[in-house]
Amino acid sequence: MSLNLVRAFSCARTVFAKKMVVYAPLPNLRNGQNLMEHIKQSQYAKFDKSGAKQAALSLHNKERIRADDIVTVVYKNQKPVTGQVLMVKRAGLNSTILLRNKITGLGVEMNIPVFHPNIIRLDIVRRPANYKPRNRHYYIRNSRLDVGELSGGSK
Amino acid sequence: MSFIFKRAQSSISNATTALNELKSSKQLISPSVIPYINSNAPITSRNNESKRQRRRLLERPGLIGIKRGMTCFFDNQGRRLPATVLEIIQNEVTFTRNVTKEGINSIQIGAGYQKPQNVTRSMLGHFRNAKVSPKQYLSDFEILNEDNLLPLGTELKADHFKIGQFVDVISVIKGKGMAGVMKRWGFGGGNASHGASKSHRSAGSTGQNTTPARVLPGKKMAGRLGNERNTIFNLEILDCNADNGYILVKGCVSGSKGSFVEIRDALKKYGKHLINLNK
């Protein structure tokens, strides 16, 4: 540390005593930006360059993915997955959507980490005419409201 | 340090020769006449130096971080891993001890910044001697060799650790206050029904009858929970960034957000015993 950072410090108690030398702290990193905010932004810049996934979850976007939508997830290295959204969990890079489908009459659910690097995009296949109330549709499981057998291209 | 273990060989041999001379003269001599021998005090196993020899030590100090929260981390294999964010700021060497003077090789590292108004004058002098700003948190890291002591005022950055290496993280667990046995020790508690009365979360029996007529020491009971130092061993470093001053550690770390944590190289992987090195 260079000596030009040194400044003399005195407080009321030590007025009569010899003045104490106090050294200045090291410079602030990230221009004082909050660390968690900085990490969040740098992760978005790395895993969602176009901002499409952020927009798909953003509450300010009217075209966002909502519970009740039917969504197809397109992967880089595996077949696409289709299902009805039961809920959207907004947690930064850790955001997930829960998809429900029926395969040969058996209910199947998948938690999709939206920002996973292997996920290319999320396509909304169909939106309902009227959205159900509530944002978490767990109650439709095994009821008369339950999803049918969904496929990506149909309807 | 082998000279410390060397007994006073010469003085013992002197004494034996003196005894032999006395025997050869074939005189009746009382034991009190045998000359008094000055020898060095033996090195006991409880001696501080021999304790240090047996201790597992690292070659370099660790860092002090501030827990900021958790996030997720996608690795090269496409796995999503939980990660704790530890901020590394204002880490500087404030003091060192060496084995010849203090009997221990250690480096004291300070982290954070405190206003000088809130620091005592004696501590201000301590920071002035190292030519560093007043620190919020100080911690001593014991190291193996005197040669590896760092000069005062050395700044340590997040790239002290390498990606993929393992570290131990030491911090204070969140205090839970007075807690019952079910929460504190995982006891089963009592029945919910079947005539159970006011004993749904109670500890049950604490011992036998007339023998021993007391509760044995160490019995698990209700009491204060948390607010103690905890070490989590062998956490992997997922990411470190010196420019922006942070480390991502795989998994969770004890303590609340904003609490100070000590991060060192994994003792069980990289630690060495001096007693083995001297063999």
From TrEMBL, chain A:
InterPro entries: Ribosomal_bL19, Ribosomal_bL19_sf, Translation_prot_SH3-like_sf. The keyword Metal-binding does not apply. One of its GO terms (biological process) is translation. Keywords: Ribonucleoprotein, Ribosomal protein. GO terms for cellular component: mitochondrial large ribosomal subunit. One of its GO terms (molecular function) is structural constituent of ribosome. Belongs to the bacterial ribosomal protein bL19 family. This is Mitochondrial 54S ribosomal protein. It comes from Pichia kluyveri (Yeast).
UniProtKB/TrEMBL annotation, chain B:
Residues 192-216 are annotated as: Disordered. The keyword Ribosomal protein applies. One of its GO terms (cellular component) is mitochondrial large ribosomal subunit. Keywords: Ribonucleoprotein, Ribosomal protein. The keyword Lipid biosynthesis does not apply. InterPro entries: Ribosomal_uL3, Ribosomal_uL3_bac/org-type, Transl_B-barrel_sf. One of its GO terms (biological process) is translation. It comes from the Eukaryota. One of its GO terms (molecular function) is structural constituent of ribosome. Pfam families: Ribosomal_L3. Transmembrane segments: none annotated. Residues 202-212 have a biased composition (Polar residues). Belongs to the universal ribosomal protein uL3 family. This is Large ribosomal subunit protein uL3m.
